[in-house]
Design goal:
This protein is an all-alpha fold and 202 residues long. It has nine helices and no strands.
C-alpha cells in the first residue's frame, strides 16, 4: 500500500504542477526548461508527504483530509511563488472535496469545519478587504479551505505558525538587503511549511 500511495503522490504532484504552470508537455520534454525542476520537486515532495501521512494515520478519513490539504498547499505554492497568484479552480475543487468529506465522515465535527471556512476564512477576507490587501485575498481563501478540511483550531495554528515563519524570513532578508518593507513575500509556501511543522515536527 505504501508503494501504491507513493505512486499516487507522484502522479498527483506531476499532473497538478503541469496544470498549474500551464505547460505543454511536448515543449517541456524538448526544451528542458526550468519548469521541469519545479515539476520533479513538487512530485517528489507530494510523494514524501503522502507516504509520511499514511505511516502516521493509516488509510483513514483523517489521512484523506490531510492529503487533500497537502495537495492544496503544494499546488497553490507553485503559482504563488511563480505568478504571485492563487488558482481559484484549485480552491473551488478543494471546497467541494471538503464538503464531501463532511457528509461521509462522521468523525469530522461539521461546525468546526464551517467555523474554519466561514469564521476564520471570512474574517481574513474581511481584513484583506478593509486593509486593501495587507493580507492577500487568495491567502485568506487558502486558510479558509484549510479550516474546512481540518477544522478551525488547526487553521488558526497554521495561520499563526505561517505568520511567524514569514516574519522571521522577512527580517533575515531585510538584514541581507534582499527585500524592503514594501516587498510582499508569497504567503502560501509559509502556510505549507506551517502545516508540515505541525504535522511532522511536534
Amino acid at each position: 500500500m505504501t508503494i501504491i500511495l507513493g505512486a499516487i503522490g507522484i502522479l498527483l504532484g506531476l499532473i497538478t504542477s503541469i496544470y498549474m504552470l500551464h505547460i505543454n508537455i511536448r515543449e517541456l520534454i524538448i526544451k528542458h526548461n526550468k519548469s521541469m525542476y519545479i515539476i520533479i520537486a513538487s512530485s517528489v515532495f507530494m510523494m514524501i508527504i503522502t507516504v509520511l501521512l499514511y505511516k502516521r494515520y493509516g488509510l483513514t478519513y483523517q489521512f484523506i483530509s490531510l492529503e487533500i490539504t497537502a495537495w492544496l498547499l503544494i499546488s497553490i505554492s507553485i503559482t504563488d511563488i511563480k505568478y504571485k497568484e492563487v488558482n481559484i479552480n484549485i480552491i473551488i475543487f478543494s471546497v467541494i472535496l471538503g464538503v464531501i468529506l463532511l457528509v461521509i465522515n462522521q468523525n469530522i465535527k461539521w461546525y468546526e469545519s464551517l467555523i474554519g471556512l466561514f469564521g476564520i476564512g471570512g474574517i481574513l477576507v474581511g481584513i484583506s478587504y478593509i486593509t486593501k490587501g495587507s493580507i492577500g485575498m487568495g491567502d485568506a481563501y487558502v486558510i479558509g479551505v484549510t479550516g474546512l478540511l481540518l477544522g478551525y483550531k488547526m487553521a488558526i495554528a497554521i495561520l499563526l505558525y505561517s505568520l511567524v515563519l514569514s516574519s522571521i524570513l522577512g527580517i533575515i532578508l531585510m538584514i541581507l538587503g534582499k527585500v524592503n518593507r514594501k516587498t510582499r513575500l508569497p504567503m502560501v509556501p509559509f502556510i505549507l511549511s506551517a502545516f508540515i511543522i505541525i504535522q511532522f515536527m511536534q
